[in-house]
Write a structure and sequence with these properties.
Elements (H helix, E strand, L loop, with lengths): L8 H20 L2 E2 L5 E2 L11 E2 L4 E2 L4 H12 L4 H8 L3 H8 L12
Antiparallel strand pairs: 1-2, 3-4
Helix pairs in contact: 3-4
């Protein structure tokens, strides 16, 4: 025999919020099974944190990547496509293209 539960919209929203909280708790903590040993939560690989020493900002690009971006720009590839592949904003690629950033990096002919 099954039981039917009727919920209001606000109860559904509250239930979804609690489910999200539980999921985040499980992801960030160790789960201990009853009578068992602690099981580590799923571990995701973190991106290495690279900083720009001059300003203390995180940077995703280095000189080798900028050379590759400049080469791809020279081959008429779109800035949007390049930006997606390097995980940066399209304005970053355009700033490289127009010499506002990384102007000191020269691309071999």
């Amino acid at each position: 025999m099954s039981t039917m539960i009727i919920l209001t919209d606000s109860q559904i929203v509250e239930l979804n919020n609690r489910i999200g909280q539980i999921q985040r708790l499980i992801e960030s903590a160790q789960v201990i099974k009853a009578g068992g040993t602690p099981q580590p939560a799923a571990v995701t690989e973190a991106k290495p944190k690279v900083t720009n020493q001059r300003r203390g900002r995180r940077t995703l690009l280095n000189e080798a990547k900028v050379v590759e971006i400049k080469q791809r720009l020279a081959s008429k590839e779109s800035a949007t496509k390049i930006a997606r592949s390097f995980g940066v904003h399209v304005s970053t690629v355009n700033n490289i293209k127009y010499g506002k950033n990384w102007a000191h990096i020269k691309v071999p002919a």
